Each structure stands twice: as structure tokens, then as C-alpha cells.
Amino acid sequence: MQINQGDRICLDAAKVLWQIDPGNAAVIQALVYLLENSASTFLRECAAVYLLKIEPGNQVGINALYELIKNLAKFSEDIEYDKYIAYVATERLLEVNTSLGEENQAIIAALIELISTTKNDYLLCDVARILGKIDPGNEIAIATLQRIIATTEDESICCQAAAYLGELIPGNIFAIKKLYQLITTTQSEWVRISATQNLLKIDLTNPTAIANLSQIRQSNLSQYESIVFATVRNLEQLYLANQILPEKLNEVISTLIQFIQPLTPDNDSQNCFNSQSTNQPSYEDYLMDIADVLTTILRTEDLPQVITALKGYLSQPFAKNSSYRYDAVFHIIWHCANNLNYRDFYIAWYS
């Protein structure tokens, strides 16, 4: 592999060679050469990211990302593009060096400078989020997101800023109210979906978001099942981390049951996934995963109500039309049977 065919070709060749021969020292040497000699900020960023991907902790790669960020003002090819590169470099640096903090004042200062000079609200949102992650509680990051939420007329930007603010300050009322407003007032289906997903991330049992999610699930099966399942996984992670209050757990359990039971025997067989060939997971694929999450969080006192709510899905019409649903419900009922005494199970089943 030679370094005389152009930096772009050199980088591509290094990636191919590493795939063919992982550990090849020539790849590391080529990437280091690019970092030290390429005039393109984009290629230096790409080379540094790839170097850290194949050799995490490589100091040359880390130093290169630091320099891309700290020397932001020296770039002149396309200042807005270079600002984006600086943001991406910071994000990648944070991935490989999670200890970034107050000792990295040069990085923080560069991000603050970027915020003060860029006019692109999308980039401002991203940079404010990264700044808030590197320096938790940073007032400039928070104020930037709050200003964008309050002033932008672009609903998608507003949605993104509110989501980031809720990520930096969990439970932030301003962010929750704005996402709720977007859900109830927007004319854009995409914004409504995005706002719902983001609201569920920062206010997991929000009744408006849950109700809207159920509507989305029933009317847009082929597009938005991934949102349903992402929400389910968030529920499980919060439960395992002991971050769901006991009084909220009933709402969580009801939510999971809603995700399993909305379709009727008539339209169950018409699920759009039954006739599609796709590489994306379908609602049927998610059913057993949802069942697994539900059995993870169920308490003994919850089991009778779950049996009552789901036992009908073991009837012949559902077994005929949706083996996926039947298997998921059977898995849940079996879990209940194994964790209740015979008398309590009998009462719940025949109630």
C-alpha cells in the first residue's frame, strides 16, 4: 500500500486491507501518516475515527481529534463544514474517552466558541448536547437548547432540542411540555412520531405519549414498530436500574399489555408484515421480546390481572391467525402459572 495515490484512496485501501488482514501494521502506519500529513480536515477526522475503531486508545488518533476541535478557528476551507467536523470529532472523542471533563477546558472552550459563531440550529442542538454531556450542567448548553425551543419555527428542530434538553436534564418540565405541545398541535406525521418517541424517552409513562403510541402502532404497523420496541426496552432498562417508582409500575405493566393485545382476530391475520419480505424486524418478531420484558417486571400481585387480560388470546381464532401472538401470550401465562399457587391461578383463569 503506497501513500502516493491520494489521501482518499489511501484511507479506503487501509480499511480494505484491515478487513482482509486484521492487525496488519501497515494499516496503522498509513492512518498515522494521514493524520500527520493530510490537508483535509474531513479525511483526518475519518482516519482518526477509524484508527480508534480498530485500535481503541491509540494516542495518535485521540490527539488528532483533540487538535481538530481545538484548532477550529484555523480552518478556512468551509467554516460551517469545519464546525460540523469539530462536533463530530468531539462526539467520537467522547466515545473513546468517557472521562472528558473539567480538565479538558480547551475542548469545552472550543465548543462554546462554536455555539457562539454558528447560525445553524441543527448543528447548535448537536453541539449543545455534546457540551452538556462533557460538562454536565453547563449553563451555555442548557440555555442554547432552551432558546432554540422557545424561538425556532421549525418543528423538527424544536423536537430535537427538546429531546436533547430532556436528555441533559431528566424530567425537565419545559422539554416535556414542548414535546406534548408538538404531539397535540403538529400537522406533520413525522414530527408527531418523533415527539412521541422523544417524550417517552424522558417521561416514560406519560399518558399522552402512551395513548398516541397506541394509535401509531395500530395505523402505521410497517413503519413504527421499532419505536414501540425501543420504548419497551427503555421500560426494561429503567426497571432493572430500579428507576421506576412502584406506583408507576402498574402503568408500565398496562402499557406492555396494550402493546400485545390491540389487534382483533379479524385484522390480526391482515397484519401487513404477513405478506412482506423485509430485513426489518416485524411486529410479530417483537411480540416474544415484549413478553420477555413483561415477565421480567411482573410482581406476584400483578399476575392475576395479566391472566385475565391475556387469556382470551389463547382461544382458537387467535391461535389460527397469529402463532406469534399465541406463543407470546402462552409464554406469559406459563410464567404466571409457575409463580401462582393452583387456587389463585384457577380463580384468575375462570374469573
TrEMBL record:
Position of the signal peptide: none
Keywords: Antenna complex, Lyase, Phycobilisome
GO cellular component: phycobilisome
Record domain NACHT C-terminal Cysteine and Histidine-containing: where: 323-350
InterPro entries noted in UniProt: ARM-like, ARM-type_fold, NCC-H_dom
GO MF, one annotated term: lyase activity
Name of protein: Putative signal transduction protein with Nacht domain
Similarity section: Belongs to the CpcE/RpcE/PecE family.
Gene3D superfamilies per record: Leucine-rich Repeat Variant
